[in-house]
Amino acid sequence: MYLYNSLSHEKEPFVPYVEGKVGIYTCGPTVYHYAHIGNLRTYIMEDILDRYLRYAGYEVTRVMNITDVGHLTSDADAGEDKMLKGARREHKTVMEIAKFYTDAFFADCEKLHIRTPDVIQPATGCIDDFIRVISSLLEKGYAYEAGGNIYFDTSKLDKYYVFHGFREEDLAVGVREGVEADGNKRNQADFVLWFTKSKFDSQELKWDSPWGVGYPGWHIECSCISMKYLGEHLDIHCGGIDNAFPHHTNEIAQSEAYLGHEWCKYWMHVLHLNTASGKMSKSKGEFLTLSLLESKGYSPMEYRFFCLGSHYRKSLVFTYENLENAASAYRKLIAKIALLAPRAGESFDEVGAEPLRRAFRDALDNDLNTSLAVTVLYDVLKAPVNDTTKEKLLSEFDTVLALGLLSEAEKLRQEKETAPAAAGDLSAAEIEAMIAARADAKKQKNYAEADRIRAELSAHGVVLTDTPTGTTYRVQ
Ligand code: AMP
Ligand code: ZN
Questions:
Q1: Does the Cβ of 64 fall within 6 Å of ligand 1?
Q2: Which ligand 1 atom lies nearest to the CA of residue 274?
Q3: Do 282 and 112 meet the contact criterion of CB atoms below 8 Å apart?
Q4: CA-to-CA distance for 385 and 395, rounded, in angstroms?
Q5: N or C: where does the chain have the smaller number of CB atoms within 10 Å of the terminal CB?
Q6: At what angle do helices 405-418 and 428-443 cross, to 10 degrees?
Q7: 3-class SS of residue 215
Q8: What is the pLDDT of residues 203-256, one digit of tens each?
Q9: What residue owns the CA closest to ligand 1's atom 11?
Q10: 238: Cβ below 6 Å to ligand 1?
Q11: Cα separation of 135 and 125, whole Å?
Q12: Could you say which ligand is closest to the alpha carbon of residue 65?
């Protein structure tokens, strides 16, 4: 398997520290608000990595933190704690906010078939670990106290900007916000490990420490939580591209200074989902959540399908038109799967399955090319193998893609059986397939064919209604 490594800026063969075992660390959500669909794109693509490594036979341990303290409104140690802002917005305590949005996040993940990580660790549960590592960094001379805060001294490193090579606009989060310089810092790039003094004295959660009552900086949590559960050598660290700097850069600085050796081998960064007008935001414009998409008639699986249609290392523009295209392709795929009719006694065709399995693995082995892996699903449907083989292969590939292929197809079949929609000799799956073929014809501006399909359906008593989110039908 080849994975693009943000550290080397190259696709590298994936070789974990220990043969057959993989440790993955994922930066978890800051639980001050709902996740937007951009955040969820990152978690979907990381889920593909997790699932594919398992499919490929690795024993995977995936750890995720929950940021419930220390992430300030600017990634460059300035501003107010995001959690406090969320609590004030909703007249609740920080812990109430954290619980509510952590639950909301995992509810979204479940709907999107994102596997629950093996370890989920809120930052507030590891304060002693943070204090231990910060103390050691002070002892080793990598950290200093100034103005009541503890800072990491980036001038002690041979190389601090390890991710250089990214495009400025992808990296610039912490820099671009015009943050007021902190006079306590010896070097501009230094960052806070522990705050006891901040302009925002209203910080709700504070802990005793050798340096006074205070709270941890954002970056230290990920280093400590990763080392606590995955040891001194981490195979893959994931996150959205905005995390590369300063967050991941600072994680590497403090982890390697603490350990005295290389810490993490592979860095996987998911590029952003943007709106047509630019950066996705929780405060400006329409706050795009999974629930909002659902309220507009799109299912979580349709959103997942939309995400898998493009490579994780390309930024992706979200428009309802793009989503609609993906959703209609997904419905069509499910309608085709629903037409499969495995016969009793049919056996699995190992020989026929082999090139399909190879194509699927080749796609994902090549830095998780999900859109190519999705095309293999269509190859399966067209392949000269029996329906038992097709269903089994789709089910196998769906352990990675997690698109609910067989369960959604079964739902469609059931709808046909229970709905009063029985249209003479046409099944619900056949009707859906014809509706999808008509949508295709319309897209190719073949209106004659689209009209012919509508007329054919009408002859079976099926009346179509076109809506902004797709075509519905009723049977007369
Ligand atoms: P946060 O809750 O802000 O800590 O972010 C959670 C995850 O979403 C992090 O891995 C971010 O890098 C990622 N992320 C933030 N914005 C976007 C976006 N527009 N598209 C994709 N991922 C994002
Ligand atoms: Zn992190």
A1: no
A2: 19
A3: no
A4: 15
A5: C
A6: 120
A7: strand
A8: 778 899 999 999 999 999 999 999 999 999 999 999 999 999 999 999 999 999
A9: 240
A10: no
A11: 18
A12: 2
**Nearest residue by C-alpha to atom 5 in ligand 1:** 29
The total number of residues written for the chain in this structure: 476
Residue 233 tokens read as 């050598």
38 lines ligand 1 (CB under 6 A): yes
Structure tokens at 283: 């405060």
Task: Convert the pLDDT of each residue in 159-196 to its tens digit.
Answer: 898 887 655 445 444 444 445 678 889 998 899 999 98
Q: Look at residue 284 in the predicted model and tell me its pLDDT.
A: 73
Calculate how far, in angstroms, residue 436's C-alpha sits from the geometric centre of ligand 1: 34
Written as one string, the DSSP assignment of 71-129 is -EEETTTEEEEHHHHHHHHHTS-HHHHHHHHHHHHHHHHHHTTPPPPSEEEEGGG-HHH
pLDDT in tens, 11-39: 999 999 999 999 999 999 999 999 999 99
- The token pair that represents 194 in the structure block: 């522990």
Strand pairing category for 2-5 and 10-13: antiparallel
- Mutate-to-test residue for ligand 1 from 24, 237, 242, highest number of ligand atoms within 8 A of CB: 242
Buried b (16+ CB within 10 A) or exposed e, 399-413: ebbbbbbbebbeebb
Residue whose tokens read 């400590």: 224
Cβ-contact 272, 280 below 8 angstroms: yes
What predicted TM-score, i.e. pTM, was given to this entire model? Answer: 0.87
State both tokens at 256.
Answer: 């390697």
Structure tokens at 452: 């012919």
65 Cβ below 6 A of ligand 1: no
Q: Is 39 in the pocket of ligand 1 (CB under 6 A)?
A: yes
**Identity (one letter) of the amino acid at 209?**
S
Does 70 sit in the ligand 1 pocket, CB within 6 Å? no
Q: Alpha helix locations (H) across 339-386?
A: 350-365, 370-382
198-236 as b/e, with b when 16 or more CB fall inside 10 Å? beeeebebeeebebeebbbbbbbbbbbbbbebbeebbbb
DSSP annotation of 271 reads: P
